[in-house]
Amino acid sequence: MDKTKFYTNRKNIVLLTTLCCILWGSAYPSIKIGYSLFNIDNIGSKLVFAGYRFALAGILVLLFEVIITKSKFNFSARQFGQITLLGLTQTALQYIFFYIGLSYTTGVRGSIINGTGTFVSIILAHFIYKNDKLNFNKIMGCIIGFLGVVIVNFNGQSLEGGSFTFKGEGFVMIAAIIFAASAIYGKKITQIQKPSIVTGFQLFIGGVILSILGWILGGSLKGFTLESTLLLIYMALLSSVAFVIWTELLKYNKVGIISVFNFLVPVFGTLLSSIFLGENIFDIKILISLILVCYGIFLVYKVKAQSNK
């Protein structure tokens, strides 16, 4: 199979990015449910929970590479250092902010605010790649999309959860920015290394860092039952599958073409949170914000579609 043709086929891009966004969207209610099942009520335990999830995800990816594809791990010291830095940022640092932030806001609000990472990716691509520059439509798309994020917190009265807080919505936004920047860095690394191997190691390294930090802060993970264990396994699987596919797509496509689909994450996060957590998605501010973010992405993707014809 020609991987370049497969990952650059427009239909495959839509299907694969949508799958990734569904999986990532399901992480929002899964995290909240996990806090309840494992009786997690402090920051240390939240980080241990995240660490176990990503370390397990990394192990699953690497086992697949060794057993199924018979891959070998050959890194120079410099390359391993790059992967370690990716694990520190894309997994550890991002999810330190993400997990803490999500615990101080609702799944609906967190999923929408996390969508700002899409616009950060487009702006960063402008400065890094010569063939991915900003123009009027892209700028307007980013402004309109970000306006949707602002409206969801207008007057601090959108949904239950109180006003905008730095520990809550602020941390989720920082996590989105870190993810956007580290994804571009990961694209550079995967030009000379197999994306799935890079993903496996960075998830494992990031997971170990999160676990150690959580233990230092006095955290632990207790309350393992069949239900809670299955949830943890599911979260590891969603991370391993989504990150591997996303990394492959970024390797073979422009950052902007793939990143705009991140808009689907808050959509699926909102819908799945409403289903599994019983959160309200009928607040008029939420509906307006989703429409604005959607239109902003449409403007950006319209430019991408025209440039690819």
Give a brief outline of the structure.
77% of the residues lie in helices and 0% in strands.
Explain what this protein looks like in three dimensions.
The longest helix has 28 residues, at 10-37. By secondary structure, the protein is mainly α. It has one domain. The chain has 13 helices and no strands.
Q: Give the SSE order as H and E letters.
A: HHHHHHHHHHHHH
Briefly note the structural class of the backbone. Answer: mainly alpha
Instruction: Specify the biggest β-sheet.
Output: none
Q: Which strand-content bin applies to the residues?
A: under 5%
Q: Please give the share of residues in helix.
A: over 70%
Alpha-carbon Rg, integer: 19 Å
Q: What does the average pLDDT come to?
A: 83
Strand segment tally: 0
Report the oligomer: single chain
Silhouette: globular
The helix tally amounts to: 13
Measured between the Cα atoms of the first and last residue, the distance is: 24 Å
Low-pLDDT regions:
155-161
The tally of domains stands at 1
